[in-house]
Design goal:
Two copies of one chain form a homodimer.
Chain A (H helix, E strand, L loop, with lengths): L4 E3 L8 E5 L13 E7 L13 H8 L4 E6 L27 H20 L1 E11 L1 H12 L3 H7 L10 E5 L5 H5 L3 H4 L1 H15 L6 H6 L13 E6 L8 H13 L3 E6 L27 H13 L8 H9 L3
Parallel strand pairs in A: 3-4, 3-5, 5-6, 6-7, 7-8
Antiparallel strand pairs in A: 1-2, 2-4
Helix pairs in contact in A: 2-3, 2-4
Chain lengths: 322, 322
């Protein structure tokens, strides 16, 4: 495998793309290009969680797809820091909208530029995000062909097209978030929500226009890629209603989609298995089934270009007496 | 991840260990050591198949275990060559017994030497072999504490102990093989069997004593590790009877084991999914379920050392008013 970490901008060591590019072989695809999955970890736009990074990429790699982890712009600039609720947060202009979704665009450009070397089928690049990474992936999915992306890079919109989006426990309607009293549910949720708001909007009190721009469910259209949505109803950080609203928007727009809402499990399950857990609290056998579901779903459009028979069988049939 | 290929002997570029060592994080195991799975591809002791190498290692890595691929001594010295049934095979002294199983021992020594850097729990290293790699893994499983291994390396037997063996469509009783008329089943099988015999025994006609030594089912004992055996009844290269006989031997010796014999599917399925296939012939949805079964089975003894709760929850509980 080609496992490298690439810094995407000269002056920004915090924004990186890590490759998990599969080794090809005459016994496997023999030089044919493969689909890829670009993983966007969550972390409330404060950081990118390791629990939603490499182990997730490896699970997609094990399905036969190239995988990538994007560490996009976040408030703590890639440092593994915690917010201190006692301290006033200074603004970090690098992490505010639209920087994080532009980073996905930058990653698409980079993968396109390496497609021949890495054998990536650039018509089949899926996004897979969790929490803030799901919000970022959903934002990108509705804005990839908007000037906010392609004019910024001065590149053709086609280079940015995602083939699918896999969205776990994300925010898709910021109005819903504004109307939820998180302090009532969980004081920790209130602190996080405020911090995430300063990180992404640059203010704890974004106006209606900003809330609207940042609500991907309001902007689903004919160019939105097929989406796989999953969440748990017990999530106290991001209300599951977000996933319901996003599903309704996809359904209304006639975009192919699949939804799996599990009853049990906290926010931030990632794969829901020991592979992505630091504690048993972060595992859930039932909800971890989303991975089996997404494996089948990806095959609808990402099935590898396999021949009917292995080469030695073709040879044997050619040389067999008629 | 640490993805490196290490040459295990100075003068043997063909015998290599490739690491898929997982990145640790304070959010994951926070410095605790992990179990590992050492993958031995098949290939009739002629070569090591790419279809049973990296993609299999990645599937175990996605379960949260470090993974390694061992390319052990084979007839074609790591070259991807095909046998020519018209030509007499010269002897390659490097690939004959006991070289291939000693290579597993060398890999164990190397992994032990790197355990602190790579965070490997050396008391939990499983072998996973396919076909000839399953034979090699089964041989090692019954001979790891025999002088043929530890006296050769002049090291303590404890360094070689495998914690489990996962064996797919392997040969475990060479008498069964000697008594099967492969030419009758499939002319290709006859050619392969003869070539594999020259590669491993150094002769197309090994004597009874050699057949006995090379039949791991005859040597199961109290130090044989728990085994997970799987195969398909349609296999025309290695009769499924081998797996039945091995299961009987494990059962008789009171070694923990699990067996999954699927009805459908040819020899050499590997994962049985598109990830390990060069053609649709090498996939089988039903038989590919062995991977889900082995994931559960490994957790009986390899479950990661997870805490009860994440650190932020522990902190919140400490600071909560009593």
């Amino acid at each position: 495998m080609i496992n490298e970490t690439i810094q995407l901008y000269d002056n920004r060591p915090d924004v990186t793309l890590t490759s998990y590019v599969l080794y090809d072989s005459p016994e496997l695809l023999g030089g044919k290009k493969r689909p890829a999955v670009l993983v966007c970890p969550g972390g409330g736009y404060m950081n990118c969680s390791d629990r939603e990074a490499e182990p997730v990429a490896l699970r997609f790699a094990s399905m036969g797809y190239h995988a990538f982890v994007l560490r996009y712009s976040t408030y703590f600039r890639g440092e593994n820091m915690m917010i201190n609720p006692e301290e006033e947060m200074e603004l970090n202009p690098d992490s505010v909208y639209p920087a994080p979704m532009r980073d996905i665009g930058k990653a698409f450009l980079y993968i396109h530029s390496m497609a021949d070397k890495w054998l990536v089928d650039t018509s089949k690049i899926a996004l897979c995000g969790f929490s803030a990474g799901a919000h970022n992936s959903a934002m990108y999915s509705v804005y990839w062909n908007d000037p906010v992306i392609h004019e910024h890079f001065n590149e053709s919109p086609g280079l940015f097209r995602p083939a699918a989006a896999i969205l776990g426990y994300g925010i898709y309607d910021y109005h819903l978030m504004a109307n939820t009293d998180f302090d009532e549910i969980d004081p920790f949720a209130g602190v996080l929500r405020k911090a995430a708001s300063i990180a992404f909007f640059g203010t704890a009190e974004p106006d209606e226009k900003m809330l609207d721009i940042a609500s991907p469910s309001k902007h689903v259209g004919p160019d939105t890629p097929p989406c796989f949505i999953w969440a748990t109803t017990e999530d106290t950080l991001v209300p599951v209603q977000n996933s319901c609203v996003m599903a309704a928007a996809l359904s209304a727009a006639g975009i192919p989609f699949e939804v799996h809402i599990y009853e049990k499990g906290p926010h931030g399950l990632s794969l829901g298995t020991q592979a992505t857990a630091g504690s048993l609290f972060e595992t859930n056998a039932a909800s971890s089934q989303w991975v089996q579901a997404v494996e089948k779903w990806l095959e609808y459009r990402f099935a590898l270009p396999l021949k009917e028979k292995p080469f030695w069988m073709e040879e044997a049939e050619k040389s067999a007496p008629k």
